[in-house]
Write a structure and sequence with these properties.
Largest interface: A-B, 51 and 47 residues
Radius of gyration of chain A: 19 Å
Oligomer: heterodimer
Structural class of chain B: mainly alpha
Shape of chain A: globular
Order of helices and strands of chain B: HHHHHHHHHHHHHHH
Number of helices of chain B: 15
Number of helices of chain A: 9
Radius of gyration of chain B: 22 Å
Chain lengths: 270, 373
Amino acid sequence: MLNLRLNKVSLGYGKRTVLYDISLEARPGEMLGIIGPNGSGKSTLIRGMTGLLQPISGQIFLDGKDIVNLNRQDLARLMAVVPQNPVLPELFTAFEVVLMGRTPHLGLLRYEGEDDLFIVQKAMEATQTLDLAERRVGELSGGERQRLTIARALAQKPKVILMDEPTANLDINYQIETLNLARHLCHRQELIVVTTLHDLNLAAQYCDRLVMLSNGKVYSHGSPNMVINSRTIKEVYGAEVYVYPHPVNELPATLIISDKEGNKPSRKTS
Amino acid sequence: MYKNEIQGDKDFLRMALELLKNMTLPRTTTIYPMQWRGRVYAIVGLVLLLGAILVVTLAIGSTHISFSTLWHVLLSKIPFVQIEPTWSGSIETIIFDIRLPRLLLAGLVGAALAVAGTTYQGLFRNPLADPYLIGVAQGAALGAVIGFLLPISWQAGSVPLLAFGGAILAVAIVYFIARVGKTLPMTTLILAGVALGAFLAAITSYLMIASGDKLHGIISWLLGTFSLTSWWQVTMVLPYIVVGAIIIWLHARPLNVMQLDEEQAQQLGINVEQVKLILLGAATLITAAAVCFCGIIGFVGIIIPHTVRLVWGPDHRFLLPLATFAGAIFLILADTTARTALAPTEIPVGIITAFLGAPFFLYLLRQKKRAIF
């Protein structure tokens, strides 16, 4: 079975090391979430997995092969990335941008065929962007652009999707739609899906397994119920929260507590 | 389910032919290929227009040649067509040895500057980029001025040779200064180009002041001119421009993808550093070839790409060929104006491109009130 495995990977920029000795494995059918406070290295970890940031030490294996040895086109056929704040060319239409997702499957001289157009249409339907197809990207909102990059990733027909804060610009309806789609791809279509999320409730609801990063190291790793509780949130994020089992599915639900009068943080935890 | 190999190898030409034959469009193509069709027609239209303009401008000039004479002269050159010459031999000389090479060179240079400008704008993702941004013009100018100042006995052919060499050398220096390890940061490249350009321009200006009675020749070269064009110049320049333009056209898709940012382009499987190197090399080579005989003709490399982008959109697979042919048409018309407007005096063509091109471009900007890049 295809897997994405990190073996004691350290990542950094120049002389500054951001992540130390990260070991983890992502498998199809199990959605992996990466959580952690700002600056804890979530995005760096995703960049490392894309192969664009060379590890200082350690290896990243995709399907048993070190990704350093894969060329970019082969890698792009296997792996799609949804970046956090992508630059998109304003004059191109939404359709043209999604069509760029077919690039790794086309040679220099190959023109997009009927199949490519069909795949793009399906990807746009899945992300509810088809009605934006002829609009210029410059006219679209942040959320629409985000869904467009997800559509582009789907058009790549990858086996691995890495997402960096895919819900950051989305309102609640599209947050749910997007993560439902990611879960569907992961569970039904046997894709490896790795996503960073800053919203702990979304992470708990949608991910099967969570990695919590703190100061460049894995703080805890396991099911949402193991990773998210008021003690870990206090220690890693430095925030007082109230965590209790979700009334519908028992997954950890995080409630914030304001420090208004009469709202003294209770020590009660899940 | 994961069909990596797409069936039906549809290359561009076949797609174009299919669209032209007005065949029914594929089932899923409700949105996009309608625009394809328009742009394929546009390419064909520009090629036909270019041919027509070539023929018409052959007849225009200080020696009046009627279209019927021109037509007969052209026909008589087709093998096995027997036409009794009713014209003097000098007419034939004017058409084939004076006007035709000049028109062809103007067309080639216009095409080269337009396609190089499009490439630079795409590579740098910057609407202000033109073919001269990273030192080509200043390098060529310095080389040419040195050529003008050489002793007469050395001068044969030295101006174009030194201009070509200067252009290539300037860009090579900029490239090696800007290179960081295995990568080439585009902002550093632009800054290095601007700085080296200023340095070279300073030397050029000094040499010009010191050049005495050669100043007039230098200034007309710098403004760009096609007077004194003959066939050997066309044949010298042709291979560079044709090969360079073809290399650039072939990289239209990577150039499109690089309009995202470099990181996304890599994630989509583009070898960004390699594409940058190829495109910079090809664009520099054709620009150097374009300027070496006829001087620094401004404005074509910036106005034509933007005009084409305004009318037909930003997809480089159409933008590059459209800009190529539009550039050729534009410079042929500009040069025809340059040699006829104040005949027998020639105006440097660089003055015409800016004088006629700028108002037209400003008009276009007013017409389309949306973002243009």
